[in-house]
Amino acid sequence: MGTERRAPLDRKRVADTALQLLNEVGLDGLTLRAISKELDVKAPALYWHFKDKQALLDEMATEMYRRMVVSAALDPGDTWRERLLKANRGLRAALLGYRDGAKVFSGSRFTSLDHAEQLEDNLRLFTAAGLSLAQAVRAFTTAYLFTLGFVTEEQGAQPLPGELPEGFDLVAERARRLAGYPLTAAAGAELFTDYDQHFEEGLELVIAGIEVRYGLD
Question: Which of 41, 80, 190, 209 could be cross-linked to 129 through a Cys-Cys bond (beta carbons 3.0 to 4.6 Å apart)?
């Protein structure tokens, strides 16, 4: 008989397995049954750790955040502008690392206080730049929501970077269907290509708006 022992089933092991499986099956295919099969346990065993799928998604989003923070330490010498750029570039990169990553992250609630230290530091930086706490929150969340929404749409067209739905050319098919609306048809090349450039331009627009709205240097 074999003597190899499996790692104990805990929240982290379940979340790690779910994130790995997410890239294979996407959010729609990520069922508790599929996860339990991957872990080689009975589905009811997962309910000892997560009451439902949303509770699991919350833990997955938290684990995604932990991994993002570990791989992207922020410089205490950042200006508010540099911090917004780094934080949102890092968030986008983290979300793009998982199929449907933005959908998992959106609406989820962190299950620990891992995010509090970084958020406290960001708010301190913004208020030191002259913003009120309310303005700091608004500035940071506006940029965050732009990034989350951008990646949600980006992954709708490219589930993983460079991946298109099989047999589907989004730009060409869209242009064909909208041939009677030439400007709208031509806009497809702007909407569904060069995501890196479009993200950077959009984030710069958000930051420029914050700058003007709150009179920052």
Answer: 80
The answer to whether 18 touches 35, Cβ cutoff 8 Å, is yes
Nearest C-alpha neighbor of 152 from the set 54, 27, 30, 49: 27
CA dihedral 139, 142, 143, 148 (to 10 degrees): 160
Q: What is the pLDDT of residues 149-177, one digit of tens each?
A: 999 999 988 887 777 665 556 778 888 88
Using alpha carbons, select from 29, 95, 36 the residue that is nearest to residue 63. Answer: 95
> Residues 58, 60, 64, 66: is their CA dihedral positive or negative?
positive
What amino acid is encoded at 97 in this protein? G
Q: Where are the alpha helices (DSSP H) in the chain?
A: 11-29, 32-39, 53-71, 80-96, 101-105, 116-128, 133-157, 170-177, 182-186, 188-191, 195-214
Buried b (16+ CB within 10 A) or exposed e, 85-124: bebbbbbbebbbbbbbbbbbbbebeebeeeeeebeeebbe
Look at residues 90, 101, 195 and name the one whose alpha carbon lies nearest to residue 144.
Answer: 90
DSSP state of 98: S
pTM of model > 0.90: no
